[in-house]
C-alpha cells in the first residue's frame, strides 16, 4: 500500500484526526462569509486531508490510477499536483496554457491516449480551467475529470460553482490560498 504524500509529515494530520466534519464545517462557515454558503451536511461526500496533495493522491488511488496510466495536468501548476500524480506511479502529461492561465483545449485533447485515465483541470483565479464543450468531450471519453480548485474557492461560472464540473474536486486550505485555516485539503466526490 502506498503511503499518502504529505507536505509536512504525520503532525499535520492531527489537525483533522478525530474531528467531526460538523465542527470543521461550522468553523469554515463561521470564518468565511461568501455569498450564499450552504452548510456541509453529514451525508455530503466531503473528505478532509492533511493537504491538497494528499486529497489528490487518494482520489487517484481510489480510482486505481497508477503505473502505466497517464494523467494530464496544466503546465502552470504547483508541484503538489505533479507530486501527487507521480506518487501513484502514473505518468504526468503536461498541457499548454492560454494567456489567461486556463488549459489549452488543443493540447489537452492531443494529449489523450489509451493510457489517459484522468485530467486534472486547474481552475485558476476563478476561471474555469477548460471550456464546457471540452469538458463534455472528456466525459464522453469516460476519462476522470478532477478539478483543482486550490485557487478558486467560491468562484462561479455560468451559475455553477467551480468544483461541480468534474467527477471530483479538491481544495487547499494552506496558508497561501484564498481560504485558509493553516493547512489541509478537502476532496469533494461529485460523481
Percentage of residues in helical conformation: 25-40%
Q: What's the assembly state of these chains?
A: single chain
Number of strands: 9
Shape: globular
Low-confidence stretches are 10-14, 30-42
Q: Main β-sheet, in a few words?
A: 7 strands, mixed
Task: Give the H and E element order.
Answer: HHEHEHEHEHEEEEE
Q: Strand-residue fraction?
A: 15-25%
Strand order of the largest sheet: 1-9-8-5-4-2-3
Please tell me how large the radius of gyration is. Answer: 16 Å
- Please give the count of helices: 6
Q: Kindly, what is the distance between the CA atoms of the first and last residues, rounded to a whole number of angstroms?
A: 25 Å
Structural class: alpha/beta
- On the 0 to 100 scale, the average pLDDT is 79
Q: How would you describe what is shown here?
A:
- This protein has 191 residues and is of the alpha/beta class.
- 27% of the residues lie in helices and 24% in strands.
- It has helices spanning 10-13, 21-31, 52-62, 79-88, 105-111, 132-140; strands at 46-49, 70-74, 91-95, 116-124, 144-151, 156-157, 160-161, 168-172, 185-189.
- α3 (52-62) runs parallel beside α4.
- The two termini are 25 Å apart.
- Residues 10-14 and 30-42 have low confidence and may be disordered.
Amino acid at each position: 500500500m502506498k503511503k499518502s504524500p504529505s507536505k509536512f509529515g504525520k503532525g499535520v494530520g492531527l489537525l483533522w484526526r478525530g474531528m467531526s466534519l460538523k465542527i470543521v464545517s461550522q468553523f469554515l462557515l463561521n470564518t468565511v462569509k461568501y455569498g450564499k454558503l450552504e452548510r456541509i451536511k453529514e451525508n455530503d461526500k466531503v473528505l478532509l486531508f492533511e493537504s491538497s496533495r494528499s486529497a489528490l493522491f487518494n482520489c487517484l488511488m481510489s480510482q486505481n490510477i497508477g503505473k502505466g496510466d497517464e494523467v494530464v495536468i496544466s503546465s502552470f501548476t504547483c508541484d503538489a499536483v505533479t507530486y501527487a500524480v507521480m506518487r501513484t506511479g502514473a505518468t504526468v502529461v503536461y498541457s499548454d496554457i492560454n494567456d489567461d492561465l486556463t488549459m489549452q483545449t488543443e493540447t489537452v485533447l492531443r494529449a489523450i491516449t489509451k493510457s489517459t485515465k484522468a485530467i486534472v483541470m486547474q481552475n485558476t483565479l476563478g476561471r474555469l480551467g477548460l471550456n464546457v464543450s471540452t469538458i463534455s468531450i472528456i466525459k464522453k471519453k469516460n476519462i476522470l475529470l478532477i478539478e483543482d480548485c486550490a485557487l478558486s474557492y467560491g468562484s462561479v461560472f455560468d451559475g455553477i460553482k467551480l468544483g461541480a464540473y468534474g467527477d471530483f474536486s479538491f481544495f487547499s486550505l494552506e496558508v497561501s490560498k484564498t481560504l485558509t485555516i493553516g493547512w489541509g485539503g478537502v476532496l469533494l466526490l461529485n460523481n
